[in-house]
Specification:
11 helices, about 40% helix, eight-stranded mixed sheet, three-stranded antiparallel sheet
Length: about 290
């Protein structure tokens, strides 16, 4: 049965205890959601609650994020994330499923779909691609490297609102309630691994590594929906069109209005309108 609220669940794969949210509805087609960097599984709460009417929705806290374990070796490369998705879905007993990912999670989703074509029925890649706008990537980098301990929860809310004024304060409070933790000294900080906000050790894609994503995109075999925020400073519609030219038949590109990089957070209704018909066509009817 579908759950009215997600269940907090844990599973140990590849030596790490990973946390995930499960909205139930076991008889429905499975749908896995992967969040972006510095986010948590709860970033998908609005969309997941709606989609769980028709799908068995699960959102994963990827390694180093949310309530999942941090990697002791700071192993946050592509291969580690893909191995987690493979082992995690196998632990759930999911042989074939639909996959949605944003940004870092979208990159992992693209690569997993390319390397495990027999397992992904349909893919939604949200504001992610082999080519990015450097100004958007730099803005995210600067945000990540800001002081990571603040005196109050509201100070983080205000900082996040300055970074992304499209989101309401109420929406940001809801998201940050799952992304922050209180320290013994009374201050607040992020839950995600400190290595992501270390200017020296922070994992980053080189230009060559990002360009190599084209080889993964070209190998994807399932219908793919590329979703871009109309005001995104990370992805451009031109890159989306280039992706569409090498993706398989049935793939589509949708630009969601009133949304930046975090499309589903900036315009939840617009994201749902973009994604729902695609999933109905390739997952429910397929």
């Amino acid at each position: 049965m579908k759950a009215t609220k997600p269940l907090d669940c844990f599973v140990t794969v590849n030596g790490l205890r990973l946390h995930y949210l499960d909205w139930g509805n076991d008889a429905a087609p499975p749908l896995l959601l992967l969040h972006g960097g510095m986010q948590t599984a709860h970033t998908w709460d609005f969309f997941a609650a709606s989609a769980s009417d028709c799908y068995h929705v699960v959102a994963l806290d990827q390694r180093g994020h949310g309530d999942s374990d941090w990697s002791p070796e700071a192993s946050y490369g592509r291969d580690a994330y893909l191995a987690d998705v493979a082992a995690f879905t196998e632990a759930l007993g999911w042989r074939r499923f639909a996959l949605i990912g944003l940004s870092m999670g979208g990159r992992n989703a693209l690569c997993f779909s390319a390397t495990h074509p027999e397992r992904v029925k349909a893919l939604v890649a949200c504001d992610v691609g082999p080519e990015v706008r450097p100004e958007g990537v730099e803005a995210i980098r600067r945000f990540a490297l800001m002081p990571d301990e603040l005196d109050t929860f509201e100070a983080f809310v205000e900082r996040a609102h300055q970074f992304n004024p499209r989101r309401s304060l109420e929406s940001l409070r809801g998201s940050l309630s799952h992304s922050l933790k209180r320290l013994p000294n009374g201050k607040w900080t992020w839950k995600y691994d400190r290595v992501f906000r270390d200017p020296v050790r922070r994992p980053q894609l080189t230009t060559g590594e990002r360009a190599s994503l084209w080889t993964y995109v070209e190998k994807i075999a399932c219908p793919t929906l590329v979703v871009i925020g109309a005001s995104s400073d990370v992805m451009s519609p031109e890159t989306g069109e280039k992706m569409l030219a090498v993706l398989p038949a049935g793939s589509e590109l949708v630009v969601v209005p009133h949304a930046g990089h975090v499309v589903h957070g900036d315009n939840p209704e617009g994201f749902e309108r973009a994604v729902t018909p695609f999933l109905e066509r390739w997952v429910l009817a397929g």
